[in-house]
Design goal:
about 260 residues; alpha/beta; Rossmann fold; eight-stranded mixed beta sheet; 8 strands
Length: about 260
């Protein structure tokens, strides 16, 4: 494949073990079918940061679905790539690159976590199409953000045609209000959490449902969150999946229900 100049900027690159476990759990759960529809799935961990631990974990977790999954860690900073090379193994490699994704063949999953968060909002409109253009049929781009230890996370899923959904994933044990995720929304939405925007209405409705379900706290935070998610569903919010995912503190809604206003 012809080498091109990496597209993007060097980011802070902070990361930690197990930080992206919530997204990985979603990829190996509701999205696992995407790995089963192709021969030898190719997955990219884009912008893995100063330490390649998230790419190593992704490789391990996805291989529980397909043993022949190939994971490529892509980083724009040459030193970070050089530091990761000793971890290469069959099915796991590291290359220098950016949003152009310099790998051979079409990609089944691009996971770009805590990358666009460090860019201006205008860059989203440029980066999304670049990543989407590298997708295989049934491929998926995951543009997400999480806190430093992965207890609060959210991500937008996109296929080649455009955004599909927003997922919010929260650690329930010490959850105060679901809208704590507002500080960790993907770049396309984080500045839209204001009155009049759809994502603001969604988080407000989730908070209200969580508050109304407070009597269920005696039975545990999982039961409370399931009740809140069910209330949203019954109120007409287009949620994906069901109680099996809600009990994990994970809720996914159609993109059209939260997309930014014009």
């Amino acid at each position: 494949m012809r080498k091109v100049k990496p597209v993007g900027l060097v980011t802070r690159g902070t990361t930690a073990p197990n930080r992206l476990r919530r997204c990985d759990r979603w990829l190996t759960g509701p999205q696992a079918w995407r790995l089963r529809t192709v021969d030898r799935p190719l997955v990219v961990d884009l912008g893995y940061g100063r330490h390649p631990v998230t790419a190593v974990e992704l490789h391990h977790r996805l291989r529980t679905v397909r043993r022949d999954t190939e994971v490529v860690g892509v980083e724009i900073e040459p030193a970070r790539v050089a530091d990761a090379l000793h971890l290469q193994r069959p099915g796991l490699s590291f290359v220098r690159g950016g949003f152009e994704i310099p790998v051979s063949g079409r990609v089944q999953v691009v996971r770009a976590f805590n990358v666009l968060r460090q860019y201006d909002e205008a860059h989203v409109a440029q980066a999304w199409p670049r990543m989407q253009a590298r997708l295989a049929p049934d491929g998926l781009v995951v543009d997400g953000t999480c806190d430093e230890i992965g207890r609060v996370a959210s991500w937008v899923a996109l296929d080649a045609g455009g955004p599909l959904s927003l997922t919010v994933s929260l650690r329930l044990a010490d959850l105060t209000t679901p809208s704590v995720v507002a500080e960790r929304l993907p770049k396309a939405l984080i500045h839209r959490n204001v009155p009049g925007e759809r994502v603001h209405a969604f988080l407000a409705a989730l908070d209200e449902a969580w508050e109304r379900a407070s009597p269920l706290s005696a039975y545990g935070s999982r039961q409370r969150f399931i009740s809140a998610a069910r209330a949203l569903h019954d109120a007409g919010w287009p949620l994906h999946d069901g109680p099996a995912r809600w009990r994990m503190g994970e809720i996914t809604v159609d993109w059209d229900a939260v997309r930014p206003g014009s």
